[in-house]
Every structure is written in structure tokens, then in C-alpha cells.
Amino acid sequence: MTEQRLNGFPMGAKAVLVAIGLAMLAGCATRPSPDVLNPVHQPVHLNASLHSDEAAPSRVNVLAATNRSADTARGGFGSTWADNLTYEQYAFSVPPNRKDTAITYPTSRPDPERQFAVIRRKQLAKDAFVQEVLRSTQSDGTVGIFVHGYNYSYQEALFRTAQIAADANIPGSPILFSWPSAAAVAGYVADRDAALSSRSDLDSLVTSLSASGKVKRIILFGHSMGGFLVMETVRQLKLQHRDDVIGKLAVILAAPDIDVDVFRSQLKDIGRMPIPISLLVSKDDRALVASSFIAGERGRVGRLDIDDPVIREAALKERLRVIDITSIQASDGLGHDRYASLAKFGAQLASFESGRRSSVGDVGAYVFDAAGAAVASPFRLAGRVVGSQ
């Protein structure tokens, strides 16, 4: 493989600069404590704007399953691994008139016009959790599971899920699966180990939901290292001969932090899925440049170049949907969180199925044009998808 270059720098040199930038960002940013998980009293004026010209805060519900250990002192979840999954149910107040995907966390005096806030929180037994999922299943039998990436705390992943749900206007309750990330820039290797250790727990969650005949399709959406966890879980299901579960899965990987050769090996074990895997990629994802550097300058799937004829041919051969989302604005300064902005372009959480079995024409390499206005099958996105032939 020839050495890749980015903005005129050799990949390795650029990665060092990006890694330093990542550390600086982490050091400057104020990260939310578990206190933000405590429900706040809904202010009387929360609905006051219903009687004025201002938009009112909206509400979204989120279900969460985590294999993190409980932080009993602060009421949250930490970065160590638990023996069992914990299940929770949340209701959020979502501020109106948001211009981007930035999340403003609640303070001691929450402002519903500006801040996201938990207004209800309840821990559930497994059976009760499954019943809540079934009650919130979309009319076509779809449920969605979001798997976060590296360097996420439980509360950050939970609020991000609420933001995506609000922007995508998702019916029902999306599900967060939160694995025990160290939530630290220096924790990359530890996070990879934690992701690998979480395969069986994500497997258990997916299997328990797919057991119901009411669930026809499970959107398994993995971001960054969460995409690696998703692929490892699907591979595990395949090795267990759980084709009944795999047949219901719609796998979407956003900026997947997966070594290209590892991904090829995963695909070999998994084989062709009934619903093709979708990859959301961007050549200028600088977080993945840093990841590549850490891995010895090995290419990452999230930076595939769809202009490369080899990539287009591979997408068709492997029956993949590779969608370049570079046109979508990122808010993290690194081009790694475009998936969060993608939500506002669709009526569902990146649901790319057209409601029918995929045909040969549904796979290949595509460019998503954020400035477009038409909806093109098989993508349920309020934007133009242009096929790269």
C-alpha cells in the first residue's frame, strides 16, 4: 500500500499533529459529570412558548443498555466492566431552534430553551426493557440501536443518542448500547479491549430483541470504534449460525475505525448479508488519521476513497453501500462526528432501506450531497444521492 497524504503532509507526520490536537481538545473541553443524569423538575415555563411565537422544547425517549459498572456514589456508570447488563429508560427535554449538533448540558438551574435535560429516569429489569422496546417499535417493525465510539462516557453517549433522535424525528425510543469506554484520549488501546469484551453483551441484546416476531428489522448503527464492535458482534452471530438474527439486521457503520484488512477478514467470515452493510466515510476524517497512526499507519475503513476505482469495484463485489458524507458539516473540528449531523437529513436514524429486499442496484459507491433536496431510493434521506459509476 502506498503512503497516503493529507493536506500535503505525509500521513504519519499529519497524524502526530492531529493526535496532539485531539489531546488539546480533550484538555480544553468541559465534559459532563454523571450529575447530568439526574432528572430535573420540568419548569412551569417549559410549555409557555406554546402560547408565543417561540418554539417549545420537545421531548424524546431513549432506552439504554450498558455493560459498564455502576457508579453508585454519583449515580452514573464508569469505565470498568460489569458482569451483567443494566437497562434504563430516559425522557429528555430537547431545546428548540438548535442550529448544529452541539449539546449544551444542564446546569444547576436548567434552561430548557438552551439545554438538553433528563426529565425522567427509570431502571428496568430485562423483561420490562424488552417490553418497552416492543411498545416503541416502529409501525414497520423497525428498532434502532446506537453503539458509540472511542472516548465516550455513558452520559455523553446518552445525550448524543437523544440529539440524534430529536433531529431525525425518530418514532418510538432509540436504544443506546454503551460499552465501557475509558472516556479518555489516552485510553485508545483500553477502549479497543473493552469493545472486544462487549461482543457477547451486544450479541445478547440483539438476540433478545430479534426473538419477537414484532421486530422485523434491527438497525445496528455503530460509530467509529463502535463500528468495530458491531462488526465483531455480527461475525460472532454468524459463527453461532444465528442466521435468523442476522437476517433482521441492517448494519450501518459511521466513520468506522476498523483496519481495512481486519474488515476484509470480518466480511469473509460474515458473508453476504440479506440487507447490505452501509459505510459512511470521509477522506478528511482527521480523527481516523490519528487512529491510523496509532495502528502503524494502517488504513481505516472510515477513510475509504470512493473515487478510487478499486474501492468502487470492491463495494459491488462485497455487496456494500459506501457513502461519502464529506459534504455534511462536522462540529468537532476533526470531521469525525458528521454522523450526528446526518440525522437532520432523514426521517429515520440513517435508515437506508427502501422497505423491500435490496437489489443489485442498491449497492456500490455513492456521494451524499447535503445541498440537495430530492429523496433517492434506497436512501431515506432529504438529500440527493448520486451514484458513482
From TrEMBL:
PROSITE patterns: PROKAR_LIPOPROTEIN (PS51257). PANTHER family: ABC TRANSMEMBRANE TYPE-1 DOMAIN-CONTAINING PROTEIN, TRANSMEMBRANE PROTEIN. This is Alpha/beta fold hydrolase. InterPro entries: AB_hydrolase_fold, DUF900_hydrolase, UCP033909. Signal peptide: none annotated.
